[in-house]
Write a structure and sequence with these properties.
The protein folds into four domains: 9-155, no CATH class; 214-300, Sandwich (Immunoglobulin-like); 331-432, no CATH class; 439-478. Helix content is 20%, strand content 32%. The protein is built from eight helices and 34 strands. A four-stranded mixed beta sheet has the order 18-15-21-22, with no helix packed on it. It has a four-stranded antiparallel beta sheet with strand order 17-16-19-20, with no helix packed on it. Strands 27-26-31-32 form a four-stranded mixed beta sheet. Mean pLDDT is 86; it is low at 76-95 and 473-478.
């Protein structure tokens, strides 16, 4: 004989040879005999049915506290006692066993953390299954009456003790293992990992369409400029969908709750907290912004033609006419496009009141927004940015503008000059950096004098330095 074991597992999907064994008289549960493992599956059919953990604790108390007797002790002569047992048919031998009363069993269960009501319920259920169907707890739980009291014993079973088992299954979608013992056959459940809705009928677990308690989560994934992002994975836990050509996504049958909507984009993972309840309405609009200066990616609230990187503070300007995105870092005075005349800049401060000034279109003058007067503000921006006629983008020292030097493309060597209204607007620089100024002059000198390179090779760096000093000194003396 073997003591009852609630910890033996019976795997749904592998163990399929089930046979109905019995149920309690109140219809709270059913018991099935699994011929593959020889155990009994406990299946809850009512919310009032005790959990398997409660049955386990009560079964342990029955095993530890009650005596185990032979069936013959419940017989008078050759006549087997019919159920329920009548007090008048109980012999002295049974009364001398000192069988514990039901109240004693319940108190022992309370000491193990089982509430009084559920202790009585679980005890009655085990007694009912034992007395009606012979379900054993290392002996079949049996109820006898001692005068006005009810006591509990265990009868020695003839065929051995078929144990209750832990019924387990794997989620059909993600494979996570679950215990089915506490699942109700009349209720739908879902896997917390992948949010797949499931239903257990006592025999197998199936994927189902939920009846209530869910919402569909849909929306659009869009770049800051309004361009849809297609082929991007959107996930809530392990439920994943990919955006279509319009950036649209749909995650169906999400149970009510608070979730992280996760987006994997450009190798980074972004999350957005959403609350799903009966009032939830889509579609969501998820806007992703990217800094084209430092590469940082972040979530924005809405689309827009201007936005600023929260990491390097580079400002972006989107032109819907040609689809270009212009960049302007905090160290750059302006960004100018030679091909279409687009100009983006940081507003300068009025020298009188400190208010922001705006540049007059196609003019080199500034107007104070507060004083409403023409002013000549000064600035301390060390750089500026240009998109040259060749289409290449370059960043230059402010001294190219201050010194009036032409610009050279670092990619294709094209040379060009800034318009006069640009030069005039930013000529009043407060920057004092002799090294930066020297670097501009040297670059310009070398560019305009092709003989410099052969001189370096012939005279060496010292000779070249003296030549440059003589040249620059002569120019400054003019």
């Amino acid at each position: 004989m073997h003591r009852i074991s609630f910890r033996r597992t019976c795997k749904i999907g592998i163990h399929k040879s089930l046979e109905y064994f019995g149920s309690d008289r109140n219809g709270l549960c059913r018991v099935y005999l699994c011929k593959d493992c020889g155990g009994l599956r406990y299946v809850r059919h009512s919310p009032q049915a005790p959990f398997i953990e409660t049955l386990e604790k009560v079964a342990d108390v029955i095993y530890e506290e009650t005596p185990k007797i032979k069936q013959s002790l419940l017989e008078v002569g050759q006549q087997k006692i019919s159920l329920p047992i009548q007090p008048t048919k109980i012999g002295r031998e049974i009364q001398s066993l000192q069988a514990p009363l039901k109240e004693h069993i319940v108190k022992k269960c309370e000491e193990r953390g089982v509430s009084r009501n559920y202790a009585f319920l679980a005890l009655d259920l085990l007694l009912d299954l034992g007395m009606r169907h012979g379900v054993a707890v290392d002996g079949v739980p049996w109820l006898i009456e001692l005068g006005r009291y009810e006591a509990v014993v265990r009868l020695m079973d003839v065929y051995g003790d078929p144990p209750f088992v832990r019924t387990v299954f794997n989620c059909p979608t993600c494979g996570r293992e679950y215990t089915a013992d506490n699942m109700l056959t009349s209720e739908q459940h879902y896997c917390p990992d992948c949010l797949t809705w499931l239903e257990y009928d006592g025999n197998e677990v199936k994927i189902v369409v939920p009846r209530t308690g869910y919402a569909h989560v849909d929306g659009y994934l869009i770049e800051k400029t309004g361009t849809p992002l297609s082929g991007i994975p959107i996930a809530i836990r392990k439920k994943v969908q990919w955006t279509d050509a319009q950036g649209y996504f749909l995650l169906e049958y999400i149970p009510y709750g608070i979730y992280e909507l996760e987006i994997r984009y450009l190798g980074q993972l972004f999350s957005l907290i959403i609350q799903i309840d009966g009032s939830f309405e889509g579609p969501l609009k998820v806007v992703i912004a990217k800094c084209y200066q430092c590469g940082y990616v972040w979530l924005e609230r809405d689309i827009g033609s201007e936005y600023q990187c929260p990491k390097c503070h580079t400002k972006h300007f989107y032109s819907s006419k040609d689809g270009k995105i212009y960049k302007l870092t905090p160290n750059e005075a302006f960004c100018y496009d030679f091909n279409n005349g687009n100009l983006h800049y940081w507003p300068l401060k009025c020298p009188s009141c400190g208010a922001e000034c705006y540049k007059r279109e196609n003019a080199g003058t500034w107007v104070c927004t507060k004083c409403n007067l023409y002013v000549e503000p000064r600035h301390d921006y060390p750089l500026f940015r240009c998109l040259l006629p060749c289409g290449h983008e370059n960043v230059y020292s402010i001294f190219y503008l201050v010194k009036g030097r032409s610009l050279k493309c670092g990619t294709c060597d094209l040379e060009t000059d800034l318009p006069e209204h640009i030069k005039k607007a930013w000529k009043n620089s407060k920057i004092f950096n002799p090294l930066a100024e020297l670097a501009v002059e040297v670059e310009y000198f070398v560019r305009k004098n092709p003989w410099v390179i052969p001189t370096i090779l012939t005279l060496g760096p010292i000779g070249m330095g003296l030549t440059l000093l003589a040249f620059l000194g002569g120019r400054n003396g003019k």
